[in-house]
Amino acid sequence: MVRVTGPRASGAAASGRGSGSPEGTGDSQPLLSLALAGLMEDVHAHSGALYLLSRGDSGGTLDMAVKAGLPRSFSAPWERIALTAPIPVAEAVREQRVVWISGEEDMARRYPRIAVVLPYPYCLAAAPLLSDGTAYGALYVTWPASHPPELSDAECALITTACDRLALRLRRAAERGRPVVPETHFLGSRAMATGVGAIEAIQMLNRMPDGMCGLDVNGRVVYANPATGELLGITVSRLTGSQLWTALPWLNDPVYEDRYRAAMLSQHTTAFTALRPPRDWLTFRLHPGRDGVSVHITPARAGVGDTPGQTPSGHPHRLVTISHIANLAIALTEAVSVSDVIGLVADEIMPSLGGSALVILAAESGRLRVLGHRGYPDPETVERWDGTPLTAPIPGAQSLVTGVPSFFESREQLERVYPERFTTPDGMAAWAYLPLIASGRPVGTCVLGFSEEHRFSTDERAVLTGLGGLIAQALERARLYDTKHRLAQGLQSALLPHSLPALDGLEVAARYRPGTQGMDIGGDFYDLIPTGRTAAAVIGDVQGHNVTAAGLMGQVRTAVRAYTAVGQQPGRVMESTNRLLIDLDQDLLASCAYLHLDLRAQRARMARAGHPQPLLRDPDGTVHVLDIAGGPLLGVDAAARFPTTTVPLRPGAVLALYTDGLIEAPGTDIDDALAALARRLAAATGSLEAVADALTGPPGAGGGGGGDDTALLLLRPTG
């Protein structure tokens, strides 16, 4: 559920505790750290993070400035977040309200990217740092799953008051020309007590036959009794200060670290069983708290519990690397077109990697093509690459041809290998050239630019190389989609009228809205046909929204025009079209409404085949649902008959013909939807084009709420 910012309240956070150093001091880190720590104590949260907003051409980025309560690696994929990202803290800033996630299921439903990386039971509240309507950042705090499913008014008030006070401090600092700059700082756990009671407790633990050790919130061992060293086969001195899964190769498995993550986030006891080579099985029970985890280690029966496979080297990938890849993979599945891929990489992936600029290149006819770019100070520098032969000695072409990634940590490194690049500086100081390989063949190159010199660690190179493969798959799908999209648009443009004829005494407006996401094609159609002193109008809906439906729609529309040209009456036109559809044997049905307009007689003669009833708005604004007798859908019964009904059509009246996509939606009663449409028609004012927009939405909007195509034809005699 989403909780809107509640009333302000007094308390520690509201009184200023956690506000940090006095205003005007140069050290800004205590201001942020103490504000977060104070809020976490006030609302009894067990972890949190604070972000500062950096604005740019792409809309802004949230940079993590303070992290507390959980290891930094837990949130590594989100240390830098684009303001457009579907992440709670970004949504809190965009919508300027508190966002509440009540648990694991709520997180999976609303923010699946986070749920895949952190699939644990916990609650989260995110809130913006706002002052005078300007956002300066955001923060979030988390609780164990034992927290009630609702955020209380008191908690909401404490959060919003603390955020308002901190935002005011940030605004004043910015006004003095000394804005707070984000620099990630981790608030660690408190040091162990050294009093007499603590010494006695340690002596007691040292006498225990079971292994007992304590981990801080980063997973480092701060204490281990002698039995721990004996069971694990390592001296206590070597173990202290290290993480269990890095100090012991046989524990260096993401599955074991995942148990630790689950304990820290859920604040519930977890356990796993691991094999200490060659044959000793040990059970680890993790008891979490706000300052770390107590680990109880005992011998276990062989073969009991988890036995995750090890890599041949005994050093599987770190879980944070898997987290990055999982987050990026989920994000890329949402990209549909090439522009979607470029926008997603630039807005959501590039910030998390610390990049400043991006270019996506592809190969076409032996030359490089720039598919898109972001972040370069001089776009012309990038556009020069467009059309460059693949044989050119530049890194973008060489990575595409060879399929080998290249990393340059400084300009000197790049120019040492590619001297030609010296003549075309792009303003960057470090680069990653990632070949995009899909289905075993290079399809392009992703160039990430960094504004400052950047050291690419082994893990980061592995992440970036894996990311290149994910981008390649998304890019290949997107280019195929764009090709089909252009084909669909061309076919739809050929089948629907480019414009409707201008007729004396008649104002006309029409709309077509595709219901299938991204595919502007379907079986809905409309037409207006001059017939001398009168005119004919038709609207219809062929079953389905694909190329087959569109092709049949074109045949039906052509047939209606032909039958109209030979002078057939409305009922007869429906009968002839029905027999044609059956003869074509396409196994598709169609609904249709057809009418003859007689503007001099101020009437319309109409026939209907399984189509929604038209609406008529009288000149005085009253709207009626016309009860037009009709026959079955076209294509059902070759012997079907379609009666003709005469309807008065006075000057100033509006006749609305539409397809079912305008009124049908899952979970909506058809009568209620029709009544709502009638109310919108009654309330619409202005030109007929404005009325059409009021009924279907402005140009570029989608179809009906049910995902079906929508066609609308409005007719208004002017007298």
What is the fold's blueprint, element by element?
Layout: H1 12-15, H2 29-43, E1 47-54, E2 61-68, E3 80-82, H3 88-95, E4 99-101, H4 104-110, H5 112-117, E5 122-131, E6 134-144, H6 153-175, E7 185-187, H7 196-206, E8 211-215, E9 221-224, H8 226-232, H9 236-239, H10 244-247, H11 254-266, E10 270-276, E11 280-289, E12 292-300, H12 319-333, H13 338-353, E13 357-364, E14 367-374, H14 379-383, H15 395-402, E15 406-408, H16 411-417, E16 430-438, E17 441-450, H17 458-495, E18 506-513, E19 524-531, E20 534-542, H18 547-565, H19 570-584, E21 590-598, E22 603-609, E23 615-617, E24 623-625, E25 644-648, E26 654-658, H20 670-683, H21 688-696, E27 710-717
Helicity, as a percent range: 25-40%
Number of strands: 27
Measure the end-to-end span: 54 Å
- Summed over residues and divided by their number, the pLDDT gives a mean of 81
Number of helical runs? 21
Low-pLDDT segments = 1-27, 189-196, 302-320, 700-706
Regarding quaternary structure, what we see is single chain
Q: What tags apply to this protein structure?
A:
seven-stranded mixed sheet, five-stranded antiparallel sheet, 34% helix, disordered N terminus, single chain, 719 residues, alpha+beta, 27 strands
Give a description of the structure.
This protein is an alpha+beta fold and 719 residues long. The strands form five sheets. Strands 1, 2, 3, 4, 5, 6 and 7 form a seven-stranded mixed β-sheet that branches. The radius of gyration is 33 Å and the shape is elongated. Residues 1-27, 189-196, 302-320 and 700-706 have low confidence and may be disordered.
